[in-house]
Design goal:
Length: about 120
Amino acid sequence: MRRSLILLELIFSIVLLSIIFLTTTKVLFEVNKKNKSDFTTNLTKIEFETTKLFLITTLQKDKNLNQIIYNDNKLFFNENLLQDNITAFSIKQNNQIYTIDICIDLYNNICQTWIIKQ
């Protein structure tokens, strides 16, 4: 009787530990997935900001953005690659104000509209 009780306790312990292990593993995978998503979103935002700062600097220096070319999901400046994975890009000039619509797709498509004054 005593051995059967010990065996039953052992089985309950193994089942309980298995449930705890599986739950913990699932939570860790979800946290990892969320971290990866947040990381790629932040990376895309950083790429947006660097591109925006470059365009502002170019506008201040050259007084126009005529050297910017969008071709084959890539953004070029003077035939040099400025940004990759661009899904949409447009520049509209109204007097001294440029309106730029840009979308970047790394892991998810994120779009922004910038208004830059000359």
